[in-house]
Design goal:
By secondary structure, the protein is mainly beta. It has one domain (2-189). The protein contains 1 helix and 9 strands, in the order αβββββββββ. A 9-stranded antiparallel sheet has the order 1-2-3-4-5-6-7-8-9. It is flat and about 60 Å long. The N and C termini lie far apart (63 Å).
Length: 199
């Protein structure tokens, strides 16, 4: 079974060798390059000596494949950055631990004008070993963040950050839903030498 997984990993390596060299392939461009669509792929094989993070954990060979679709828009007042990805991991001897994790990220940003900032969202499924409970966990992670900056004077500006996160554990685990939130306020001052204008 272990050797079969190695042979399968080698066959998949041929599919992703072009993407491994070039890292990303833009297959759609429009509006003079302001809109771009990318496909990104990766393949990795590694040995984990303790897949459960337990005192007597099992070892296994894991083959991971990731495919991502990226869309970038830099036209107009509001820019867009987004990514939809899917990660598949296959365990050679512990097939029940194999998983498929999708992830979606979306960001709207304003880089020009007096007030600048960004608003971002993300949602994704994460499967990993948790050392605190000595077992593998599956959870949905959600987060959102808002950043802004406003110049009050030539050398002085104000900015702030507001963020919130949620982790929702699923499956047989002793963990439950957890929330993480944060707020921030910041000020910036550009100081130049006497007689020199601020950049």
């Amino acid at each position: 079974m272990l050797h079969r997984s190695i042979r399968r990993a080698l066959r998949l390596a041929g599919i992703f060798i072009y993407l491994a060299i070039h890292q990303a392939l833009a297959f759609v461009k429009s509006a003079e390059g302001h809109n771009e669509l990318f496909v990104v792929g990766s393949l990795a094989t590694g040995f984990d000596s303790n897949i459960n993070s337990a005192a007597e954990g099992k070892s296994d060979l894991i083959t991971s494949t990731t495919v991502a679709l990226n869309y970038i828009r830099n036209a107009g007042l509001i820019g867009v950055n987004s990514e939809l990805s899917w990660t598949r991991a296959d365990f050679a001897e512990n097939a029940a631990e194999s998983f498929s994790d999708p992830t979606l990220t979306l960001e709207f940003n304003k880089k020009t004008g007096r007030t600048t900032g960004s608003l971002s969202f993300s949602a994704g499924r994460q499967s990993q070993a948790d050392a605190s409970i000595n077992q593998r966990t599956v959870a949905w992670n959600y987060s959102t963040a808002f950043n802004w900056k406003y110049p009050v004077m030539d050398r002085y500006s104000l900015g702030g950050t507001l963020s919130h996160g949620l982790i929702d554990y699923t499956g047989p685990t002793s963990l439950s839903i957890t929330h993480n939130s944060g707020t921030g306020f910041k000020s910036e001052c550009d100081v130049s030498e006497a007689g020199e204008p601020a950049p």
